[in-house]
C-alpha cells in the first residue's frame, strides 16, 4: 500500500474530522507532523495514533490535540506500525 505524504496525512485527518462534524482545527500542526512521522504515512497507523492522541488530550482536559498529547499517545501505545 502506498504511503501518504505529510500534506496528504494532514488532509486525511482533516477529512475524518469534517465527516465526524468537526469544522474547526482539533490537531495542532506539530501534532499532525508527529503523527505523520511516526506513522510513516500509513493510514491505519495514522488512525491509531490520532485516536490515542485524542484520548490523551481529553484525559489532560485539553481542547486541542498538541504535540505533547501525541507524544504521550505514542509512548503509551508503543506504536511500531
UniProtKB/TrEMBL annotation:
Q: Which domain of life is it from?
A: Bacteria
Q: Which InterPro entries match?
A: ExeA_AAA_ATPase_DNA-bind (IPR052026), P-loop_NTPase (IPR027417)
Name the record gives this protein = Uncharacterized protein
Q: Which species is the source of this protein?
A: Streptomyces yunnanensis
Amino acid at each position: 500500500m502506498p504511503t501518504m505524504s505529510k500534506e496528504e496525512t494532514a488532509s486525511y485527518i482533516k477529512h475524518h474530522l469534517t465527516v465526524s462534524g468537526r469544522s474547526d482545527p482539533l490537531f495542532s500542526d506539530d501534532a499532525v507532523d508527529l503523527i505523520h512521522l511516526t506513522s510513516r504515512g500509513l493510514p491505519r497507523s495514522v488512525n491509531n495514533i490520532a485516536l490515542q492522541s485524542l484520548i490523551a488530550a481529553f484525559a489532560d482536559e485539553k481542547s486541542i490535540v498538541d504535540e505533547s498529547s501525541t507524544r504521550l499517545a505514542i509512548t503509551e501505545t508503543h506504536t511500531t506500525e
